[in-house]
Design a protein that fits this description.
The structure holds two protein chains of two kinds.
Chain A lengths: L2 H27 L9 H8 L5 H4 L1 H9 L5 H12 L1 H13 L5 H8 L4 H33 L12 H20 L10 H29 L3 H10 L9 H17 L1 H9 L5 H19 L1 H11 L9 H8 L3 H45 L8 H26 L8 H10 L2 H9 L5 H23 L8 H6 L7 E2 L2 E2 L7 H23 L4 H11 L18 H12 L1 H14 L11 H15 L1 H12 L6 H75 L6 H32 L8 E4 H12 L9 E3 L2 H4 L2 E4 L1 H18 L6 E9 L2 E8 L6 H4 L12 H4 L5 H11 L3 E4 L7 E7 L5 H8 L1
Helix pairs in contact in A: 1-10, 2-10, 2-14, 4-15, 5-12, 5-14, 7-8, 8-9, 8-17, 8-18, 8-19, 8-21, 9-17, 9-18, 10-14, 10-15, 10-17, 11-15, 12-13, 12-19, 13-17, 15-16, 16-17, 17-18, 19-21, 19-23, 21-23, 25-26, 25-29, 27-28, 29-30, 30-36, 31-33, 33-36
Chain B lengths: L3 E6 L3 H13 L2 E6 L2 H10 L4 E5 L7 H10 L8 E5 L4 H9 L4 E4 L4 H12 L2
Parallel strand pairs in B: 1-2, 1-3, 3-4, 4-5
Helix pairs in contact in B: 2-3
Classes of the chains: A mainly alpha, B alpha/beta.
């Protein structure tokens, strides 16, 4: 075919892709994206895994190494069938957290660490750039193979030029459809649809060539099998170790390759698509690999010795005169290469712009003190630039490597490179203890080992690594030889590198995680990632908003309580001169809010929460709400538990107290009854005995009769008084006393009491010292009852004061609305041990004859004072017995007091 | 006929006077003490033929007096009539354990006291 025709065909095909992509974009914009969001398109887009390397290379691989090419398909098949759990979790987390790339995924899981983002980006660039170069090479190669008029169009022989134009064209396509807008979810319907179309072209092309070979050239499947048997393929035998290693490697690659992550996770719109893909994608891989072996075998039979088996897919139909099939095969290979380059450069450009260029730019601007302004256009331009840079690197790499054979192995080398992401990725999904330090450590040493044992040596001895290092090891240490690290020389270089890099990577990752303590934001992110299914998070299709006061208020409410949060927000708003509950989001406000929240959840968590809400967060406001809700629940629960246990111990204490009180009351009741019995029976005994004597009146003298009658009379009086006292006490104690509240002059009441008490030991001289001015107080109370108390105190003093010149001092004080009166005599006072007893019933300290009462006096006084809203206490250390009577100057009724208290 | 001596330990003067009157009338030689300590010393120097003991005394209770009596040789067998105004069964039981001869609750019938006393000292 002529070069011009081929170029025209290519342009036509590319125009078709543009059309499809535009159509898809327009449909998506108009909301008619139903068919775009089908699991079929998703599955087909996954075929970006099958690059030109698999399209052309698989046949070459089969021709050189037999069935081993199958491992590249078996790994992904096993992942989609067996590791479905990992994929599902990956996809769910990716969508819920709006992950934009695998670097973003790792970075946000480990506390939004940009260091990790940079490490992963650099790793992916180093592994991805040669891979892109490989695609450019295959397109250029297929051109030169296909074009028949090399002489008339010498340009067709200049593979470098072809590669350049291809790179430019692909960059243009990727920029147009990859950076149309900056949607937060980083989904590119146009690109995905074009990729899906290319997937169909790839499959159809390979199937067509295969069917032609099996039924057109050979005599059907049986004949092909016979020919396969007859063909002496090198390394035909399966090598278990290498097979296991390669299957594992390709399995890891399907998860970790940036372009696979792009289509698998970033472009995914629905978890359920994965269910379809889990069987459909392996089926696709099976179909695309079905005819690899027949084509390889027939190619080896029919093609002249020395021809490149990598090009059999195209050269075989060409040699057999089927130009149409060859063109189809060419387009298939073109599709495979372009789809890979488009998606890979898109994915890599996203990483470069998000993790390297934009952060640098922002830091630069911040250092210059400039406002960052609207970032959207900047980010888009940076991304466009990044796409050009990535493709430029790929092209440069192709030119510099000179299209050497080194490129052939680059596919697997890239696989080992991206495999270094796996430990951190699995840790992100399943291990909450995985830390940023561990991830950074594992990734760094893994990448370093990969570069040293595989990437750098792959350029050949002497290109980057000196031949001396290759042969004798670094610094002449033989155990540091790139292909024989630590003396391990039995594995082939690929498996050797895979083994050491992954082993050391995993060890460093685990060790780093165990030895470091994750920061609060890491823990929050860790919980969000690992426990992604615990949250009822429906897929959010709208862009994540920056935090608004409306979002922050409910979050704050969950943490510090509704009233407190509302008061705080209102105060903040009014400080800004605004009405209502919603202040402007200013740095001052956020700082204050953080301080407020810190009181409840600790400074670190509060800081993380605010930083997340206020910045361009990976954790959305909803996620924060979930964390906040959790915190609130935990706090509520624990405070409930605390309250319950407090309540229990309070109840127990109350019960114990009540029990003690009952027991004491029971003892008191027994003692009281016993006392009453004694006090009643004693006068009754005298009365009965003397009455019996008097019944025999004849033998008695008149004097005796008179005396005995007097005794009976006195004892009757005593009995009556006792009963009166008991009744009085009972009434007072039960608060059933009728108080006669009236205004009175305190001095007059005291006069009355002093006069009344004079009858006690009337013959004894007893001085009463008073200050009548102080006593001039108008009080409103039950004057009769109060006087009763005064009389009791004065009588007691008269009875018990031991001084030879007995006197009592009465002092009156007004303290606010209360009156205090001290009665202090100059006797011996009451012994300390008895001071607590004197107000108890029947607490008679001396014998009853001297007391002349039943020992209820002070008990009654105390009850009276309690009824007068007052008290009577013994004041120790006053030189003699000292009683202090205090009471309300104006006594209100009990009902009025209770009302006032409420 | 030799007069029998009875010691009355009672702090209520009206009660001891009544007891003194009725017992004297019935031929007893009556001595009265109002508190426990004085009574105990008198008991040691001149033990009576019988004792009337009130339970509640100002300085010590009747049980303590009884315990002291029963601990000493001369008064170990002394007939004791205990009187109490408290009238609780626990007191009666305790008095019995301490070796009281008779136990009577106040107020009492004069005739009962005389009969109990005569019964106690009867040979």
């Amino acid at each position: 075919m002529s070069f011009n025709l081929l170029v025209l065909t290519c342009l036509g095909y590319v125009a078709l892709l543009f059309a499809v992509a535009s159509l898809a974009e327009r449909s998506a914009e108009e909301g008619r994206a139903g068919w775009l969001r089908s699991p079929l398109v998703y599955t087909l887009s996954l075929s970006v895994y099958c690059t030109a390397w698999t399209f052309y290379g698989a046949v070459g691989y089969a021709a050189r190494s037999g069935l081993e090419f199958m491992t590249i398909y078996l790994g992904p098949t096993l992942v989609f069938v067996g590791w479905w759990v990992i994929l599902r979790k990956l996809v769910r987390i990716g969508r819920e957290n709006r992950v934009t790339s695998i670097a973003d995924f790792i970075s946000s899981r480990y506390g939004k660490s940009n260091l990790l983002g940079v490490i992963v980006t650099l790793l992916c660039i180093s592994a991805g750039t040669p891979y892109i170069a490989l695609q450019l090479q295959s397109i250029a190669q297929s051109f030169t193979v296909f074009v028949t008029d090399l002489d008339s169009a010498p340009v067709a022989g200049d593979r470098t030029l072809i590669a350049l134009w291809v790179a430019i064209g692909l960059a243009f396509f990727t920029i147009v459809f990859g950076t149309r807008n900056l949607d937060a979810n980083e989904q590119h319907h146009g690109v995905v649809t074009a990729i899906a179309l290319e997937a169909v072209v790839k499959l159809v092309a390979l199937l067509a060539v295969g069917i032609f070979v099996v039924w057109g050239v050979a005599g059907g499947p049986a004949d092909v099998l016979a020919r396969i048997d007859a063909q002496a393929l090198p390394d035909w035998q399966v090598q278990p170790g290498r097979w296991t290693g390669l299957i594992l490697l390709s399995a890891i690659a399907i998860i970790c390759l940036p372009r696979m992550f792009q289509v698998l996770v970033v472009e995914n719109v629905d978890d359920k698509h994965l269910a379809t893909a889990s069987w459909a994608f392996p089926t696709y891989l099976f179909a695309i690999s079905l005819f690899v072996l027949p084509i390889a075998v027939l190619g080896m039979e029919r093609m002249p010795p020395g021809s490149n088996p990598d090009m059999f897919v195209m050269t075989l139909p060409l040699a057999l005169g089927r130009d149409d099939l060859a063109l189809l095969a060419f387009l298939g290979g073109f599709s495979a290469a372009t789809s890979m380059v488009i998606v890979a450069s898109l994915a890599l450009a996203t990483m470069v712009s998000n993790h390297i260029v934009v952060p640098l730019w922002l830091r630069l601007r911040a250092a210059q003190g400039q406002d960052t302004g609207d970032m959207r256009l900047l980010v888009l331009n940076v991304r466009r630039l990044s796409i050009s840079i990535v493709l430029g690197f790929g092209y440069l790499y192709y030119v510099l490597s000179g299209g050497s054979e080194a490129l052939a192995a680059i596919g697997l080398i890239a696989f080992v490179g991206v495999a270094q992401i796996l430990p951190a990725l699995l840790g992100a999904l399943f291990w909450r203890g995985a830390s940023r330090t561990g991830a950074a450590l594992g990734l760094s040493v893994g990448a370093a080992l990969w570069a040293y044992t595989l990437l750098l040596p792959s350029f050949g001895a002497g290109v980057i690594l000196p031949a001396q290092v290759m042969n004798d090891g670094l610094l002449g240490l033989s155990w540091l030889r790139p292909y024989g690290l630590f003396g391990l020389t039995t594995l082939d270089p690929l498996l050797h590198a895979l083994f050491w890099s992954l082993l050391v990577n995993v060890l460093a990752f685990c060790l780093g995680s165990f030895l470091s303590f994750p920061s609060p934001i890491e823990r929050v992110q860790g919980a969000l990632f690992v426990n992604v299914y615990d949250r009822p998070g429906p897929a959010r299709s709208w862009s994540r908003p920056l935090a608004q006061a409306e979002d922050l208020l409910p979050m704050a409410q969950r943490i510090i309580g509704a009233t407190s949060a509302q008061t705080f927000f209102q105060a903040q708003a009014s400080a800004q001169g605004k009405d209502g509950f919603l202040p402007d989001i200013t740095p001052e406000f956020l700082e204050a809010l953080e301080l407020k929240l810190a009181g409840s959840v600790g400074a670190a968590t509060a800081h993380a929460m605010i930083a997340q809400s206020a910045g361009t967060a990976v954790v959305s406001v909803e996620d924060l709400m979930a964390v906040a809700s959790e915190t609130a629940q935990i706090m509520e629960y624990s405070s409930q538990l605390e309250a319950q246990s407090e309540e229990l111990s309070r109840t127990a204490r109350k019960l114990r107290e009540a029990n003690d009180k009952l027991r004491k009351l029971s003892v008191q009741k027994d003692a009281f009854l016993s006392q009453i019995s004694h006090e009643l029976r004693t006068p009754m005994t005298s009365i009965r005995a003397f009455s019996e004597i008097m019944m025999d009146a004849d033998s008695l003298s008149p004097e005796e009769q008179a005396h005995f009658a007097q005794v009976i009379h006195d004892e009757s009086i005593r009995l009556t008084r006792l009963l009166d006292d008991l009744l009085d006490l009972s009434v007072l104690e039960h608060g059933q006393v009728q108080l006669d509240i009236a205004p009175a002059n305190l001095r007059k009441l005291l006069d009355q009491a002093v006069t009344s008490s004079k009858s006690v030991q009337a013959d004894r001289h007893f001085r009463v010292l008073r200050s009548r001015d102080e006593e001039e107080v108008m009080i409103t109370t039950d004057g009769g009852r109060l006087t009763q108390v005064f009389i009791n105190i004065l009588s007691n003093a008269r009875k018990y004061c031991t001084s030879d010149t007995p006197e009592i001092h009465i002092q009156v004080r007004q303290v606010q609305d209360r009156v205090e009166i001290d009665f202090t005599d100059n006797g011996a006072g009451i012994p300390t041990a008895n001071q607590a007893l004197i107000f108890e019933k029947f607490a008679r300290l001396t014998d009853s004859l001297q007391a002349g009462g039943a020992g209820l006096g002070l008990a009654i006084c105390r009850e009276i004072m309690h009824n007068l809203d007052g008290d009577i206490v013994y004041v120790p250390g006053q030189g003699g017995a000292s009683f202090r009577v205090s009471f309300a100057r104006i006594l209100t009724t009990r009902a009025a007091r209770r009302e006032a208290a409420e | 006929m030799v007069q029998k001596r009875v010691l009355v330990i009672e702090d209520e003067p009206n009660i001891s006077e009544a007891i003194r009157f009725i017992l004297t009338r019935n031929g007893w030689q009556v001595e009265v003490e109002a508190d426990g300590m004085a009574a105990l010393s008198r008991l040691r120097t001149a033990p009576p033929d019988a004792l009337i003991l009130d339970l509640m005394l100002p300085d010590m209770d009747g049980f303590e007096v009884l315990r002291s009596l029963r601990a000493e040789g001369p008064t170990r067998e002394l007939p004791v009539l205990m009187l109490t105004a408290r009238g609780q069964n626990a007191d009666r039981d305790l008095a019995a354990r301490l070796g009281v001869t008779r136990f009577m609750t106040k107020p009492f019938a004069n005739a009962d006291v005389i009969a109990a006393l005569q019964d106690m000292v009867a040979p």
